[in-house]
Amino acid sequence: MSTTFPTRPDAPEADAHTDFLDAVDFEPPTRIPSPEGVEIGPRRTLRTATLDERFNVVGALAGGLALATLLFGWIGPLSGIVGWFVVAFLAFVGLYVLLVSLRSDWQEVKDRVATVLMVSAGVLLFGALVFIVVYTIARGSEALPFLNFFTETMELTGPLDPLSSGGILHAIVGTLIQISIALAITVPLGITTAVFLNEIGGRFARFVRTIADAMTALPSIVAGLFVYAAIIQLVTHQRSGFAAAMAITVMMLPIVIRASDVVLRLVPGNLREASYALGTSRWRTVWHVVLPTARSGLVTAVILGTARGIGETSPVLLTSGITAVMNVNPFSGPMISLPLQVFDFVRSPEPTMIARGFGTAAVLILLVLGLFIIARMIGGKGPGQLSDRQRRAAKVDSIRDLQRITMLDDRIARGEYPPRVLPTVQTEPATASTASAPPAASAPPAAPSAPPTAPPTADPS
């Protein structure tokens, strides 16, 4: 036996049903508690630190620096800038734990210490990156201001020539050609393999995943030796840009496969199920649902593979060869790249050649940064993140749908929707007697009627 609760009618009919609702003691099944009399505490700011937290950090930092300075300069026989930083950091962590424990429990102390360690690791990595970039650009600042450094080759320049002569144009072109060939092979093959590992699976997929994991830790010199033995010794019989691109591909492919595999695993399974429920095939689901959802992560995977391949030196040293002239044919003759050009420059004891080496390294860093920016612009937005043009188009579509729905509501209010359907005449099925009877002879068509004649008129004579 089920009990139905009456619902409250609309406002115009409320007066007519008041007595009935009072008689049945109406009580809605859901109650909204009143906020009156409830004490509201202070709002916590998650993105800003309190005064106590700032005091703990600043105090522990000042204490750590002072203690390290005393140990290295006054009390202990310690020396070295690296040791000073290590002692200062350890003292900072210890003093910070002591200050936090004065007003917090052990759980909050562990949380604060973990936060400090994570932030310190991020600052250390970012500081190392900034140091590498700044140091490289500073050492290469002697060669970078010269325009010929970007527009000429080293064909007519020797080690003793000034920086106003020669350049690295041949190395820039060689790097772009080699990385383009490597990306043309790695991107479709790596993403297709990752799709196979996630969407198909099976025993062979586990074998492929194991091989990709093993190739991730493959030494670069081994990849260079493999390409040297398989392509140069057996096929081309000469070092070339194509052989160097194959060696770079061997280094990039496992990284792209594993990174893309991890990204595709993060795509929610209910998106695939919803696509299959609509009747689409597996190929259309992967192409229109899975890949667009994981686009940002796939771009990151390609960036990681490019960063690994564009800076390789040892496999390129064995496969591409060293040259000082321009070569745009990757299948004939040696083709040098920027990392190999840096190696060739810094081997010389001449200051001008070393300056050219650091300038080439700075150009390589800027080139990689430019490629990363282009990749982020192409596919760096995550699922649901629309550009300005896409947001304007979505707004126009929403306005159009609102107008269509409003017009439909007006038609319903006027009684014009749904449209009236004329009754259809249903014919009865023929019986056996009717079907066996011969068809009646049709009447002959009527003769066409003569055209009307004018009435006779009297003779005027």
TrEMBL record:
Stored PROSITE patterns: ABC_TM1
Comp. bias intervals (Pro residues): 441-461
Ranges of compositional bias, category Low complexity: 429-440
Positions of the ABC transmembrane type-1 domain: 172-375
Molecular function, one GO term: phosphate transmembrane transporter activity
Swiss-Prot/TrEMBL GO biological process terms: phosphate ion transmembrane transport
Main location: membrane
Keyword Cytoplasm: no
Transmembrane segments: 55-75, 81-102, 114-138, 168-197, 217-236, 242-264, 285-307, 353-375
Region (Disordered): 416-461
Gene3D superfamilies assigned to the protein according to its UniProt record, in alphabetical order: MetI-like
Function: Part of the binding-protein-dependent transport system for phosphate; probably responsible for the translocation of the substrate across the membrane.
Stated family: Belongs to the binding-protein-dependent transport system permease family. CysTW subfamily.
Protein name, entry field: Phosphate transport system permease protein PstA
Taxonomic source organism: Herbiconiux oxytropis
